[in-house]
């Protein structure tokens, strides 16, 4: 009887060793013990905590450089990485950045292909949004619906697609070459886009229908039921969509040449209250409530991504994350990724979470 019991226990042990999940868990535990500075996510991925460092862009205003620990991610196997989950409320307690990233430089076609990722503005909670862009060589524009459910991107040549986080479905909205402009409706039902040069349409996420519209849109814009506020090439304008009346135009000093007035960098805050425009020589902040234009002189810190009430801003190239607290005159700069390649520019979404603040209290 004793011999039979020992054989049974031995058999159970063998079954446990042959269980792939148990073997992976043991391998992860072993690696964690060998590298206590790493936090493993799956068997092949991990992150370490590194201090932020000095900034790498020129500013005429003294900013306090902040030193604090941020995650630096090593993702070798994206399939093992957690995906963004609309039902996980903890992911949406801060605004988030979204970007296209090929997480590995390996020869593996999947890992070296572009995928859409996201993370909180404090660098935590990296999530794989979707890997359906693996066939693209370039992502030129990204946008997210206000309810966080839909991701739209324009690939090489301006071909546009939409991914539904709730169903996992991908819809091709535009197959032919087209301009990049895209903009979501306030209720997240419609994706407005520039279908051909100066011809605009909307895609209905409920019916799949595409119909033409009679107003112009920009990516750097905020659309409500009856109003659009958008950043053009050299101004910020507001329109009443029901009456087709122009509400305001915030333009620049007419003494400047056309070259000096054209924006190379444009952004708008999540509510449309503030907008930014700049080029190599000048920069301006626009207040669409007070209808003012402020030329930036000492506070010429880039605002390619603009947060609620223009409190925070960031550069949109995530080879290195660079965030400015424009109210507290602070700056953070850190590397979020160890390897891989980024395509296009990062964007902000879920921008009103935490009252628009990009860090929790105490940070």
User: How far is it from the N-terminal to the C-terminal residue, by CA?
Assistant: 63 Å
Average pLDDT number: 89
Q: Count the strands?
A: 28
Low-pLDDT ranges: 1-17
Helix content: under 10%
Strand order of the largest sheet: 3-27-26-25-24
| Biggest sheet features | 5 strands, mixed
**Rg result:** 24 Å
Shape: globular
Strand content: 35-45%
Structural class, please? Answer: mainly beta
Helical run tally: 3
Could you give a quick summary of the protein structure above?
By secondary structure, the protein is mainly beta. The chain has helices spanning 2-18, 20-34, 258-261; strands spanning 39-40, 46-51, 64-65, 69-74, 96-102, 115-120, 127-130, 139-144, 150-155, 160-164, 170-174, 182-184, 190-196, 199-204, 210-213, 221-223, 227-231, 235-240, 245-251, 265-268, 274-278, 283-287, 292-295, 305-306, 312-314, 321-325, 330-334, 341-349. The strands form 7 sheets. A 5-stranded mixed β-sheet has the order 3-27-26-25-24, with no helix packed on it. Strands 7-6-5-28 form a 4-stranded antiparallel β-sheet, with no helix packed on it. The chain has a 4-stranded antiparallel β-sheet with strand order 8-9-10-11, with no helix packed on it.
């Amino acid at each position: 009887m004793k011999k039979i019991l020992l054989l049974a226990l031995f058999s159970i042990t063998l079954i446990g060793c042959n269980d792939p999940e148990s073997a992976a868990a043991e391998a992860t535990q072993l690696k964690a013990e060998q590298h206590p500075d790493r936090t493993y996510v799956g068997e092949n991925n991990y992150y370490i905590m590194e201090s932020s460092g000095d900034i790498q862009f020129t500013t005429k205003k003294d900013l306090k450089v902040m030193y604090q620990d941020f995650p630096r991610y090593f993702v070798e196997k994206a399939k093992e990485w957690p995906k963004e989950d609309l039902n996980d409320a903890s992911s949406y307690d801060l605004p988030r950045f979204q970007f296209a990233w090929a997480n590995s430089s390996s020869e593996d076609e999947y890992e070296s292909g572009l995928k859409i990722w996201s993370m909180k503005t404090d660098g935590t909670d990296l999530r794989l949004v979707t890997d359906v862009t693996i066939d693209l060589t370039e992502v030129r524009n990204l946008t997210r619906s206000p309810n966080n459910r839909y991701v739209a991107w324009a690939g090489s040549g301006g071909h546009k697609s939409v991914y539904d986080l709730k169903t996992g479905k991908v819809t091709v909205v535009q197959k032919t070459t087209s301009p990049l402009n895209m903009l979501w409706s306030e209720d997240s039902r419609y994706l407005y886009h520039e279908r051909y040069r100066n011809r605009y349409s909307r895609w209905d996420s409920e019916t799949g229908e595409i119909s033409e519209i009679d107003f112009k849109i920009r990516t750097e814009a905020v659309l409500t039921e009856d109003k659009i506020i958008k950043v053009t090439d050299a101004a910020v304008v507001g329109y009443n969509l029901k009456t087709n009346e122009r509400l305001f135009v915030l333009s620049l000093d007419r003494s400047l040449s056309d070259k000096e007035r054209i924006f190379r960098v444009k952004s708008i805050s999540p509510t449309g209250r503030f907008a930014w425009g700049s080029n190599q020589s000048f920069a301006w902040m626009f207040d669409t409530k007070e209808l003012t234009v402020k030329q930036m002189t000492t506070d010429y810190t880039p605002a390619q991504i603009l947060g609620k009430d223009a409190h925070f801003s960031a550069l949109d190239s995530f080879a290195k994350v660079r965030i400015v607290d424009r109210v507290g005159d602070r700056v953070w700069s850190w590397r979020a990724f160890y390897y891989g390649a980024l395509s296009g520019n990062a964007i902000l979404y879920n921008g009103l979470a935490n009252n628009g603040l990009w860090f929790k209290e105490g940070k």
